[in-house]
Structure formats: structure tokens, C-alpha cells
Design a protein that fits this description.
Number of strands: 12
Strand content: 15-25%
Order of helices and strands: EEEEHHEEEHHHEEHHEEEHHHHHH
Distance between the termini: 50 Å
Radius of gyration: 33 Å
Structural class: alpha+beta
Number of helices: 13
Length: about 450
């Protein structure tokens, strides 16, 4: 009999086009704590964060949710009823479009899929989570479900689909809350297994993993711990207490929101890197596109690049650990340096081409002067003096001799040489250095905490 239940949130990178028709705001989770009923709705959650962060997480047009009246099964292995989707949340970066879409803009978003896992024991639950999100074919099937109307509802006004490029290659992020009655093993190694959604049967812990599990474990209180890894996080109760329900609401609401914000930051950096790389080999006429990318990166740093999102509480530690796991600080600095370098390179090319065009124009005017001034003078004299055909021949010959004499002047001779030279079309259009994207490149400067 399947008696143990684990609450899991799968955070999936998505691209969103159009207006979502779901209910505005985050999912209003409820429960009963030691002192009475608990509610984790938008106004309650926003009190934990800085106002500008609250606007990103819960502002109008940024956050939506949908509760499924009949939980939808996720087919895993041979037991399709053991994982069921109970609700969906959508976090959208509404005011930034890194794709430069025509018509309806395409936004970067994080789809939070609330899943209830029922299993016979903790090892079985870990196996189910692993099979649901880790293998490539499972991720493909999960993204395919985004077109299922029974899961996401009406799709006439909004399209939620798998993004392309770097953003589409990342695994879903698995956030799990594990009560003590589900798993009484509270060791750091066990916490690592839950955070990685990887049981020992699939991958045994290395010595490094075991060391990191002990060093990076966050003690939220005397009753529970947390661990944030690159592809997942876990919150595990260590004592049997009446605080368990309160801890569950914290883990599945504001703590998951903090991790979703970190994933959104990483997704926007990936999308901006893709857009910058797409313009790095363009003709200099596309300089407006790279200027736009540079401006979007600056906007991202001002609006979305938060490292301290709350005056108090462990949400800062959770976000900090995820940013460290994904190396977002150096990735962002590297991206900005690359974008500025490409922009400056293109601006130098444009300045050189403009200077070259001015030189050619000046040379052409100088040659016209060299040929036209003596000829004009000769024709004027001929018209006033003789107006005969022999006189015209003499005047033309005199003008040619005068032009030849002018061409021997060193300055004018250099202008003529400039006009005769040809422009190599590849001279100034060689592509600048490409964007390295998600490479780990260390930049000596550091960004102060927002």
C-alpha cells in the first residue's frame, strides 16, 4: 500500500508568448500550524521580500496559478498513479524580451509544477523523482505535456512551450519537502540524495559529494535542514514536531519562490547570451541589435540581479547557494564584458568606414578641382579671345598641361592615390570575438550586493 507522501515542486524553464489566462497571483497554500490556520498567499509572501523583489515575484502580469480539480498523473515506470500534478504556477519576466520577438513578445518564464509523490518508502520516492526529471526522454515527455489542455487549461491566449538553445537544455529543478515520518535518515548524505533527486542505486555519493553535503547544509532551525544543489533542493524535517506543517508551507512557497528567482536569473542570462552570440557575427549594419542586447543586460542588472532579497530569513542563503552552484556572478560579468566588447568593435568598424568614405569623397572633389579649374579657365579665355576651333584645341591642351602640373603637387597626388585604391569588403567586417556563453570565465571585478 502506498502510504508515504512527499510534496515536490518541479521548476521548469519555459518560453511564454501571449497573455496567461490563469488566476493572477501565486498559489494560495493553506495549512494548520501550532497557533492556528496558515495561509501562504501573495500578500503574505510579499512581506518577506524587498518591495522590488516582491514586484518581480508577485506583481501583476508576472505570476499566475492554476489548481487542478482532478490531479493529473505523471507516467513514471510502470506506476502511472504514483506521481500526480495538483497545481501549476507560472513566473514570467514580463518586462524584458531577450528574444527580440516580432508581434507578441516571447518571455522567459519558470513553470512550477506541484507534484504529490506517493510511495512505499523513501527509496522508492527517490527513484520515482529520478525517473520523472533526470533522463532525457523523461524531460522530453514532460515538456510534451505542456501542450496538454487537461494540464494547462485554455491555450488560446497563451503559449507555454519548451525554449530553444541553452535555456532548453537545462534539467527541471526539483524542490522536495520530506517529513520525518517519510524518511527518518537525517544524515547529510541522505539530504544530498533528496536534493539531487538521485538515489544511491542510481549514483553513489562520491567523497566530494559527501563533503559538500555537510559543508553546504543550511540549518533552518533546530527542527529542519535544507540543501541547495545545481539541479535540486531539499528541505528535510529532523524532529517530529507540530512545526512540520508550517515548515511545509515555507518550503513550498517563499523558499521555492527564492529558488525560482535564481532559476529565472540564470534563464535570462542564458537567453541574453544567445541573443548576444547571434549578433556577434552580424554585419556592422546590425549594430542596433547588439546595442539593444547591451541595454538589456544593463536593465537585467538593475532590475533582476538580486543577491539579497530579504531583510531577514534564510531566503538570502538559498538564493546565494543557487547562484554559487550555477556560477551566475562570473557568467553575468563575462556576458557584459563580451557584449561591451562586441559593441565597441562594431562602433570602431563604423567609424573606420565613415572615415574611409570621407577620404574618398574628398579625393574625388580634389580631382574634380584639378581637372575642372584649368579647363574652366581655358574655356572662359577662349570664349572671350578667339572663339575659333584651333583656339579651342589650344585652350584644351593648355588645361590638360595645367591639370598635369597640379597633379604633381604632393598633397593632391596623395588624394588621387586614395581615390584609386579599392576597399576590401572584408577589411572591416571580420567578426568580433564570439560570445563564450556559459563558459566559466573568471572576472577580477565583483558586484556589490543589491
Amino acid at each position: 500500500m502506498l502510504t508515504s507522501e512527499v510534496d515536490v515542486v518541479l521548476v521548469v524553464d519555459v518560453a511564454v508568448r501571449g497573455i496567461c489566462s490563469w488566476t493572477d497571483g501565486p498559489l494560495p497554500l493553506t495549512g494548520r500550524g501550532p497557533s492556528g490556520p496558515l495561509t501562504a498567499d501573495g500578500p503574505t509572501r510579499s512581506t518577506l521580500f524587498h518591495p522590488r523583489v516582491s514586484r518581480i515575484l508577485y506583481g501583476e502580469g508576472n505570476r499566475f496559478h492554476r489548481v487542478l480539480s482532478r490531479p493529473e498523473p505523471l507516467h513514471v515506470g510502470g506506476s502511472p498513479t504514483e506521481l500526480r500534478v495538483v497545481a501549476l504556477e507560472l513566473l514570467v519576466a514580463q518586462d524584458i524580451d531577450p528574444f527580440g520577438s516580432q508581434g507578441d513578445p516571447t518571455r522567459v518564464g519558470e513553470l512550477m509544477i506541484h507534484v504529490r509523490v506517493r510511495s512505499t518508502d523513501a527509496n522508492e520516492a527517490l527513484r520515482l523523482l529520478h525517473e520523472a526529471v533526470r533522463p532525457r526522454n523523461a524531460r522530453t515527455a514532460l515538456h510534451r505535456r505542456l501542450n496538454d489542455r487537461a494540464l494547462i487549461g485554455d491555450t488560446t491566449t497563451c503559449a507555454i512551450h519548451q525554449p530553444t538553445g541553452l535555456l532548453g537544455e537545462r534539467q527541471p529543478y526539483c524542490v522536495s519537502f520530506v517529513p520525518l515520518e517519510v524518511d527518518g535518515n537525517c544524515s547529510p548524505e541522505r539530504l544530498w540524495e533528496w536534493a539531487a533527486a538521485t538515489p544511491n542505486a542510481c549514483r553513489a555519493l562520491s567523497e566530494r559529494d559527501s563533503t559538500e553535503a555537510s559543508a553546504w547544509r543550511i540549518q533552518l532551525s533546530a527542527d529542519w535542514n535544507a540543501l541547495v544543489l545545481r539541479d535540486g533542493a531539499a528541505f528535510q524535517m529532523t524532529t517530529a514536531t507540530t512545526f512540520t506543517e508550517s515548515a511545509r508551507l515555507y518550503a513550498l512557497s517563499v523558499y521555492t519562490d527564492a529558488l525560482a528567482l535564481g532559476r529565472l536569473q540564470a534563464g535570462l542570462i542564458d537567453a541574453l547570451a544567445e541573443a548576444t552570440a547571434a549578433n556577434s557575427h552580424s554585419d556592422v549594419r546590425a549594430v542596433a541589435d547588439i546595442v539593444r542586447c547591451d541595454s538589456l543586460i544593463t536593465w537585467f542588472r538593475a532590475e533582476y540581479w538580486w543577491k539579497r532579497i530579504s531583510p531577514t530569513g534564510p531566503v538570502n542563503e538559498l538564493l546565494r547557494d543557487l547562484q554559487r552552484q550555477l556560477d551566475l556572478q562570473s557568467e553575468l560579468e563575462n556576458l557584459q564584458v563580451e557584449a561591451r566588447g562586441i559593441r565597441e568593435n562594431m562602433e570602431v568598424q563604423i567609424a573606420q568606414k565613415s572615415q574611409r568614405a570621407n577620404e574618398i569623397t574628398n579625393s574625388a572633389l580634389a580631382l574634380l578641382t584639378m581637372a575642372g579649374l584649368p579647363l574652366g579657365a581655358a574655356l572662359a579665355i577662349w570664349a572671350e579671345v578667339s572663339s575659333t576651333w584651333p583656339g579651342l584645341a589650344v585652350a584644351t591642351a593648355s588645361a590638360m598641361i595645367a591639370s598635369l602640373g597640379l597633379s604633381r603637387i604632393p598633397g593632391l597626388r596623395g588624394l588621387a592615390a586614395t581615390l584609386r585604391s579599392t576597399v576590401d569588403p572584408t577589411e572591416f567586417d571580420s567578426p568580433p570575438h564570439p560570445v563564450r556563453g556559459r563558459q566559466r570565465t573568471s572576472i577580477p571585478q565583483s558586484d556589490p550586493e543589491t
